[in-house]
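Sharing a chain and its predicted structure for anyone who wants a worked example. Both blocks are below, sequence first, tokens second.
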Amino acid sequence: MRTFPIFFILFLVIPIIEIFFLIKVGEVIGAFPTIILVVLTAVIGAGLLRQQGLSTLARFQQNLSTGKIPAQEMVEGILLAVGGALLMTPGFVTDTMGFLCLLPFSRKFIASNIIKRSTAKFTAGMSGGFGAGAGGYYQESNNDSTSNIMEGEFTEVEDDPVKLDNNKNNPKP
């Protein structure tokens, strides 16, 4: 994947969209209420991030203690961090994306879709003897007679360079 289009969107397109919406909202409700609204979304987001982060951490620890792989909670933790960063960025578009990452119903939906897509890509990219098992890996055994593996023993013998000549079978004088 090329990174230039991603950075182009992140650093040029999104700020332009944010400025556009800030100006439009400022025209409707005024500059001071717009600033208050942006600060208020950041404060609400910080509180929601703390509460949801602790909840996700508790589920993570519970899954670990029962022996389950906490994949959902790990992806949700990343989404919480991204959502918190988006809410700290001033603007209404990033706040909307940040709240989608922080609200439990939308975060679980996004996380499960990420897991499904990455699992599908992972299993589609697997070939040969390894594949995803129930929380681990397995290797297929090759029991057919065409295997290239041979068992045997060896003994290392040192040649006496004085006695052997590589060009002739006659011993050296």
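Comments welcome. DSSP finds five helices and two strands in the chain.
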